[in-house]
Design brief:
38% of the residues lie in helices and 19% in strands. The longest helix has 25 residues.
Length: 421
């Protein structure tokens, strides 16, 4: 790393010092997202950025300090350690940085996609945790290895600084057996851990707690249906802060229609495609995850809801049908979860689509009037990007837009874990 980071004995004892600066890392296969928080001063986001195209020529580095415009530059980063080094140099740069020294970073929180049944809460990283993340890699082969790569890079760059793994699946581990089990031979569960796990747990947890503040009730007294709607989408039925059911399963593929994922389909379609059409399993896998969903049915050539909405406004019948399909599937799950919960105090919409697409929310709510959720068009329009209630004041099932902040949730979880250590 060079001379701008020198380990000191004090850093090795940092678990006994007040915690302020927390770095959040989300490491992908060829990218590294980061956000730096000052927890002692109102959970302030100090800086954030993204390194993409890691390992390729002309790696792109996007950086932004709080309240300032983004900057972009081309760097050389052959691996995640190289990307992290560029991030660290920028964070301590006298003109562009926000830290006097890397020694100011007191803890690092990492997004890890799959924790299986082993991890039901954020966990301080040690050798056993690393082995556990590796063991779950077969359940998330595209995500867990790079997530782990980010952890290993941080251990090298920040020796003595605690790393905390925050798992996307952890919040859903409260699901009871009758909702997470599949009706398959039990040997598949016992020997291969084939079951529902759920994803987007950090986002669902964040908006669950934010909803408690909005509604003015303890989270333990609330029944909520949380809808994380984006390029990847999932819903959860949350009772008293615990998940009863969620739409994604062993993988992020099932559930509602997404940007490029099909959501729920007849599983025999896979057999038919293999036997009758002659598609390989790899080709089917790629189709279901990357070439299905809105990109397949909207007629726009993309999985972006903004393009779909524009196409609907331009009179595309194909796009209009796609929007109805998207809304129909979500409404079906909301209705089912409403029944499972025995009624809900509110429906929460978040994520890129949930927060920003008034037309998508309107399409969903058209199917929910029987549950007492009546759209307020003006409120729905003003809620985009800002949040707020989108149903009429006399609706018996209120629907709220609450912006998610997964990075802040990871910082909070990291703070709590390190404070207890």
């Amino acid at each position: 790393m060079g001379s701008f980071f020198t380990p000191t004995p004090e850093r090795l004892c940092m678990l006994n010092t007040p915690i302020d600066k927390i770095l959040v890392i989300n490491s992908g296969s060829s990218s590294l997202k980061f956000m730096l928080f000052g927890m002692a001063d109102g959970e302030t986001m100090l800086a954030k950025g993204l390194v993409e195209r890691i390992g390729l020529p002309h790696t792109n580095f996007v950086y932004q300090r709080d309240g300032e415009p983004k900057s972009e530059q081309t760097i050389e980063a052959q691996n995640h350690a190289g990307a992290l080094e560029a991030v660290c140099k920028t964070l301590v740069d006298p003109e562009r940085g926000v830290l006097k020294s890397l020694a100011d970073v007191q803890a690092i929180g990492h997004r890890v996609v799959h924790g299986g049944e082993r991890f039901s809460a954020p966990t301080l990283v040690d050798n056993a945790v690393i082995e556990g993340i590796e063991a779950c890699a077969s359940l998330a082969p595209l995500h867990n290895p790079p997530n782990l790569g980010g952890i290993i890079a941080c251990e090298k760059v920040f020796p003595g600084v605690p790393n905390v793994a925050v798992f996307d699946t952890a919040f859903h581990q409260s699901m009871p057996e009758h909702t997470y089990m599949y009706a398959l031979p039990k040997s598949l569960y016992k020997e291969h851990q084939i079951r529902k796990y759920g994803f987007h747990g950090t986002s669902h947890k964040f908006v669950t707690r934010a909803a408690a503040e909005v509604l003015g009730k303890p989270v333990e007294q609330l029944k909520l249906i949380t809808c994380h709607l984006g390029n990847g989408s999932s819903l959860a039925a949350v009772d008293g802060g615990k998940v009863l059911d969620t739409t994604m399963g062993l993988t992020p593929l099932p559930g509602v229609i997404m940007g490029t994922r099909c959501g729920d389909i007849d599983p025999a379609i896979i057999l038919h495609l293999a036997r009758e059409v002659g598609m390989s399993l790899d080709a089917i896998d790629a189709m279901l995850n990357k070439k299905s969903g809105l990109i397949a049915i909207s007629g726009t050539g993309t999985g972006d809801m903004r393009d779909l909405v524009n196409a609907v406004a331009s009179g595309s019948a194909e796009a209009a049908t796609a929007l109805k399909m998207f809304a129909h599937r979500i409404a079906m799950y909301i209705g089912g979860y409403h029944a499972v919960l025995g009624g809900a105090d509110a429906v929460i919409m978040t994520g890129g689509i949930g927060e920003n697409s008034a037309p998508a929310r309107e399409a969903i709510l058209k199917n929910l009037s029987a549950l007492g959720a009546i759209l307020d068009p003006a409120a729905n329009k003003s809620a985009s990007g800002a949040g707020g209630r989108v149903t009429t004041v006399d609706s018996t099932l209120p629907v709220y837009v609450i912006p998610t902040n997964e990075e802040l949730m990871i910082a909070r979880e990291t703070f709590a874990v390190v404070a207890k250590a």
